[in-house]
Design brief:
mainly alpha, Mechanosensitive channel stage V sporulation protein AC, extended
Amino acid sequence: MDKMTNKEYQKYAEKKIPKPTYFKNILYAFIVGGLICVLGQILRNILFKYGLDEKTVTSATSILLVFLGSFLTGLGFYDKLGKIGGAGAAIPITGFANSIVSPAMEFKREGFIFGVAARMFSIAGPVLVYGVSSSIIVGILYLLLSKGR
């Protein structure tokens, strides 16, 4: 049996590794993320049609998108969308809802308290902690730097 050198093995492995399809991935992410944003805009337009003000429409749109992301994750559809759309499905607010619900769904067999509730914020928790912390720091810096004006 012939033994390969490290260089020969490296060349052999490079030939076997599938080439990434960057353009296709970028295109699908753009389409999926764009469609989610279009859905958000449609919801906004519908809510404005009912005569709601800007603040109420903004809140209601966010709430509806989080609900839809959570609901579709619970049905198993959002995971399929994420496989197709990649970052396009992860970036919008629906992706945030998916990141909260996915771990909870994974541990639902352990019960609602020790499974769902305990795991719900395992991924989103650190994001929330650092997001709130950084917003406080930025707010304090803004307050200090704008005092002299």
